Amino acid sequence: MTMKLNTFMRWWFVVLAALVLGTGNIAAAPSEVSVETYGAKCDTTTDDIAAINKAVTAVTTSGGIVKLPARTCKTSATITLPTGVVLRGSSKTGTIIKPTGSGFHAITISSATDFAIEYLTVDMTNVTGTADAISITSSSRGRIVQVIAKNATRAGVRFNTNGYGNILSNFTATSNLYGLDVVGTSSLNLVSTLQCDSCWFQSNTSHGAHLKNAGLITFTNSVSEQNTGSGLDFETYVTHINWLGGTIEANTRYAVESDALYDNIVIDAYHDGVNGLGLYSSNVVNLDVEATKGRLIADTYAIVGANVRGLWVFDASSGTTISDKGPLAHNLTSDTDVKGLTPRIAGRKQYIDFTTGSHYADVADHNDFTFGNGATDSAFSIVALVKPANTLDMTLAAKFNDAGGGDKEYIFYTDGTGVLIARMFDNSSAGYIGRAYNTALSDTGGWHTYIMTYSGSAVALGIKLYRDGVRVDDIDSNSGAYTAMENLTAVFGTYFTSGGTRYPFKGPYAYLGVFAEELTVSKVKAFDAMLRGVVGRSH
Fold first, then answer.
1. 521-535 and 289-304 are packed helices; what angle lies between their axes, rounded to 10 degrees?
2. Which helix (H) or strand (E) holds 526?
3. Residue ranges covered by each domain of the chain
4. Which residues, 6+ apart, have CB-to-CB distance to 178 below 8 Å?
5. What integer is the mean pLDDT of 173-177?
6. Given pLDDT bands bounded at 50, 70 and 90, which one contains residue 343?
7. How do 107-110 and 79-80 pair as beta strands?
């Protein structure tokens, strides 16, 4: 999912980086003191908090560097860093700050500027109560470089109230509640212009990164994975967020999740097809359709691999061709120039609106769309993302024409009462097998995924129907004798033909896929998360 920043905002990020990185946050040649000079033992058992705070006080007036040895320093209270002070260890894993106690942060920065924490680990294993490894309040132009923050009851690092121009570089947060927690006071009092480069948020018990009342935040080459919540979570007002490069994958909930208003979001990282983009809110602007389309295509291949028979993202803005994004180049053709079908932004995804008239899209018969040879059937599935304008006689996809002697293979549709049905036809015997959801759909006005899977078993129970990732079929829909579908000549499209009349889908159509496999439950849920994620869930 990608959302486009305007030219000014892209320019601002470049200028910001030049100002912050080019000039540096800490004055040149600062004084240096060692905590050992002030009595720190850093032997894992002695409480070193008094010695460390004395060292900090020694450089507070004009700023400087407080050096920690390559050992474990035990603390019983918070280390408070003022403006201009750098807390520097020997290496990311060599120096360990290990607090012991209840209800305090290991390191606190409040109303400060030009501070830094470098080359160390903060291990919060022995702290109970609400605590962050690093807590930063109303502070700006700070650096956290080559730092590990782990086992905190709240956040690895928390930016709160407001602040700007802070940098995380090669920062790792693991086994906290949140890896990164950014919490501004309100939409008018944001934590902003935070840069996270080569950060890693892993195995946190809630979200990898949680943003609330936050803006102008850029993640580059960063990873958020294996978190119990989502990789990236938005709450309340979030604006102008870039995640460029890196990965967001293998999180229990979603790659990206949102409950609230946000805009100008760029997610250009690899994210896994299993969880996909699970975005709840539909309050979004400035969508980059091409990048969103690219993610849908990439995630489709992540789910079904080489089994793509047809893959259409309904993104054409003019002409009659709707390109097949799969490997077989089966382009759909609209019966009219789609420029007149008002392509638009649907929450987070472009679509073609088939609401008015009786317009449709189809592609000529091809063996790639046939899944029976008259003797046996083979497995296949159909996946659609649509916003129904009418759930009566709603065709999602079909290869069906009953004219003359009949040219019927399969149909995925609702009947005249709004019941969702999928049927496979034995054209020679006029029999069919099918499954139905014996409840009239009431889905007009909302985005939904509809998925049909068929095992190729030639029995009704081999067909399964899913609405929004949940299996719903509850009744057979059979007639006569059935052996197998046959390789016939009906076109594949968004309508079926009966008695010479087309019954097309009516409403916005965003995505249609045909796959030569019976999708598993986990793959169905992956498609649902991916597809409804980019349009905003309708509940």
1. 180
2. helix 521-535
3. 7-33+84-286, 305-535
4. 154, 155, 156, 158, 204, 206, 207, 208, 209, 210
5. 98
6. very low
7. parallel
**Separation CA 123–CA 156 (nearest Å):** 9
Instruction: Please list the residues that pair with 238 across neighbouring strands.
Output: 214, 262
Number of Cβ within 10 Å of residue 457's Cβ equals 14
Whether the predicted model's global pTM rises above the 0.85 cut: no
- Give 204-243 pLDDT, tens digit per residue: 999 999 999 888 899 988 999 999 998 888 887 888 888 8
Does pLDDT of 260 surpass 80? no
CB atoms within 10 A of CB 209: 32
- Using one digit for the tens of pLDDT, what is the confidence trace for 113-136? 999 999 999 999 999 999 999 999
pLDDT at 37: 97
7-33+84-286 under CATH 2.60.40, yes or no: no
Q: Is 230 helix (H, G, I), strand (E, B) or coil?
A: coil
| Integer angstrom CA distances of residue 429 from 178, 365, 408, 443, 486 | 61, 21, 11, 35, 11
What percentage of the chain carries pLDDT values higher than 90?
61
CATH code assigned to 305-535: 2.60.120.200
Rounded to whole angstroms, what are the CA distances from 132 to 52, 107, 177, 183?
A: 19, 8, 9, 13
Residues 217, 9: contact at Cβ < 8 Å?
A: no
Alpha carbon distance 25, 166 (integer Å): 9
d(CA 305, CA 237): 37
- Chain position carrying tokens 């004395």: 54
Phi/psi at 83 (5° precision): -55, 135
Residues in the chain: 539
Measure the CA–CA gap between 241 and 233, rounded to whole angstroms. 11
Please, where are the H alpha helices in 166-280? none
Report how far Cα 150 is from the mean position of its chain's Cα atoms: 24
Among the listed ranges 102-111, 159-168, 259-268, 493-502, which one has the minimum average pLDDT value? 259-268
What pLDDT is recorded for position 262? Answer: 58
